[in-house]
Structure formats: structure tokens, C-alpha cells
Amino acid sequence: MKNALMTLSASLMLGGIATAQKVTFEEYTLDNGLHVILHNDPTAPTIITSVMYHVGTKDEDPEKTGFAHFFEHLLFEGTENIQRGEWFKIVSGNGGINNANTSDDRTYYFEIFPSNNLELGLWMEAERMMHPIINQIGVDTQNEVIKEEKKNVIDNVPYGNFISQVKKNLFFTHPYRWETIGSTEHLDAAKLQDFQAFHKKFYIPNNAVLVVAGNFETNQAKKWIRQYFDPIKKGTPIVKSTFLEVPINETVHATYEDTNIQIPAIVAAYRTPSMKTRDARILEMISSLLSGGKSSKLYKKIVDDKKMALQVGAFDLSQEDYGMYILYALPLGEISPESILKEIDDEIITLQTNLISENDLQKIQNKIENEFVNKNASLEGVATSLATYYLLFGNTQLINTDIETYRTITREEIRDVAKKYLNPNQRLLLNYIPSKDKAQN
Questions:
Q1: Backbone dihedral angles phi then psi of residue 233, each to the nearest 5 degrees
Q2: Peptidase M16 C-terminal domain spans which residues (predicted)?
């Protein structure tokens, strides 16, 4: 009874937090196609101006990869009215910070300023969209920056090529098959005209969403948005390509040698549906059940109880077109990767044949709900969620309603989705091993 009351109390508490965190917003579209979302929070001491463009790795030419990530860097180089090298000085000089990031599906830029600097943030993002300077000096500079980034975060990092090798072997026709940072050889070979053409096609108002979040006066914000963004011309409408993958019907085997590791990793990866689907949310719950912390099924069984692995995990990478469900383990001592894989498979078989307990269902629903609430607990998190739900999901209201999907997921659905997607004949088995050349040295 005591445990039941504690579970009920936690559930009610989390539910109350979720309701209290309801995000209010207003959205509209300018004549040039730019979608605008306003979230007014009078209690915030700051203001966020952000623009998310619907362009990512999947929009690249297979022979010219890395362009989307390249522009994440290049569009800080300067504009007709912001001299080269001055962007970050202007932001920091006005008490702000800024950043950008790229995924396979979109590119996101943002500034965070004290709330009295809304006009500056809007002007800078309009400048980035309307007047960027794309010249050879900027291209050459950022090319070197990206080469260093690739060395520091991928090539010289233990298990740094883990995700890229999964993508390479799990997708056969979809652009998700290459890494987001792209090929340095492709970037070296690209001409200035190639970059200019890529920019002209994708970095247009009718392929973007502007989010303003924080403490501002709404009518004044709308006036400035019209003033700075209305003059930007609408671009040629973009027709997105559709890439359909043939289902995997037998196990795909691959091996990768990493010069930066001493302990091999066994990886089992499954291709999963779009993040827009209910099944993708169920797979997220399954990953939470299997490896969401040290009390999870796999960690407790393989690391704690049987002491077969240094680490074991599962995570679901949901994307706009397809997702990846990845299981991995680092064997302990002389334990074979095959024996760990059998333990993982046994746990999945249990999921596929038996209903999880009501207590386990409640536990993962509470965990997911808590993560959902925390994601929108900061102004930056709210701005990102608003942009993402509009641009990639096509429904901004999901920032408030998406949690209801998780709340209605049943034990039967968890069993059935595990049975549908997590079968040995539908997966990639990647042996991620130390380099033989290094071992011989």
C-alpha cells in the first residue's frame, strides 16, 4: 500500500507540473512565407530570437556532403551590414550569447539577449537571412575550422565513429547514411558557386520558422518583425525528395576498426519509423525501460548482476523520415560480445512475449513525463521545442499535447512494437573493434 501511494503521489505531482508548464504562444505567417511563433513570458529576464531552417544532411547531394553543417558555421562570417569577425563581438558586447546546430533534418540558429535587446536579435537574424556574405575567404576559413572539428570530436575520440558507422550500414539509399559533418574531401572539392547555389535554394523565409520567446511587448515585436523580415523575398518553393528504404529482412553484418579504443563494442541497430509516429514514442519508452539509468533492465542484469559488461545501453534516435534504435555493450574482460548479445536478445524476447508490469509502465511514463517537463522548463528549451514541433512535426500544439500520447501507451503496445521492430533478422550487427594495426604496434 505504501508503494502504491508513493507511485500515485509521484504521478499526481508530475501531472501537476506538466499542467503548470503549459506553453502559450501565437503563430502566423508573413507574406514571404516565413512562419513566426511568439511565446511571451513576462517573468523572463531574457529574450531569445531563433530561426530554424528546414535543411539538413538529408538535403545534400551524395557527392557534395557536409554543406548543411558547413553553413551552420559559414553564416556567422558576416553580412552586408555586419563586418567579418564582428558577429560574436556584437552579441557578447550586448550581454548576449549565441550558437547554432545542425541535424540530418534541420539547421538552428539562436541568440539569447537581455530582454531589452529584442530589436537587435531580430535585426541580426534578418541580416543572416537577407544579406549574408558568401565569399571565398569565408569558405576557406570555415573549411579549416570544420577539419579541426572533425579531428577533435570524431576522428581522434574513442568510439567517435560509432554513430556514423551505424548510419552507413543501416541505410542504403536515404541520405541519413552519411554523417552530418560530411566529407572533408567533398568540401575541399566544392566550388564557391556550389555553396552559393545551396544557400540560395534552402536559406529562404518560406523554408524557415522564426521563434521569439521571453519578455517582450507583443505589438512592438510584431512591428520589428515586419520591419526587418518583410523585405526578404520569398524563395523558389522547395520540393523535398522522398527516399524509401527497402525493409531489412536478414541480419546485416559489419566491422569497423577504431585506432582510439582498446575495448571492443558490440552494437545491434534497428531501422525504425518516423519520429512523427506513435510507434516512435513507444520505442522511446522501450529504451527507457531497457537502459534508462542504473535501475534499468539491461544495466541491472548485465552490468550489476552478471558483471558481463562495463557498460550497456539502448537509445532511440528519432528523425523526420526514419529513426535508429541502437543497443550497445562494452564487454568486461574476456567476456565474448556474443554472450552479451544473447543476454540482450533474451531481454527483448521477454518484452515481445510478456506484458511488462503495471509498475514498470508507470515508472517509465513518469520518467518520460519528467523529461518532457524539464525540456520545456527553460526559455531556450521552449524556443527549440516550438520550432521543432512546427517545422518537423507540422503541429506546434504538440508542445502541450505530445505528452498525452505517452500517457495513453499501453503494455500491449510495448509488447507489440518490440515484436514488430526488434527482431534479429531486421538489424545491423556492428563489431566495433580496436584497430589491428594499433594492436600490432
A1: -75, 145
A2: 192-367
Helix (H) or strand (E) holding 111: strand 107-114
Contact, 131 vs 80, CB < 8 A?
yes
Q: Are residues 80 and 147 in the same domain?
A: yes
pLDDT at 18 (0 to 100): 42
Residues in the chain predicted with pLDDT less than 50, given as ranges, are 1-20, 439-441
Which three cell numbers mark 257?
576498426
- Where residue 66 falls (left for φ over 0; alpha for ψ -120 to 50; beta otherwise) is left
Query: How many domains is the chain partitioned into structurally?
Result: 2
Clarify whether residues 219 and 291 are in a common domain: no
Residues 225 and 256 in one domain: no
Domain endpoint, select from 229, 260, 282: 229
pLDDT of residue 436: 80
Nine cell digits for residue 322: 526514419
User: What domain range is 72 assigned to?
Assistant: 24-229
CA 25 from centre of chain: 23
SS3 of residue 209 by DSSP:
strand
Q: What is the pLDDT of residue 438?
A: 54
| Element at 357 (helix H, strand E) | none
Query: Could you give the percent of the chain with pLDDT greater than 70?
Result: 94
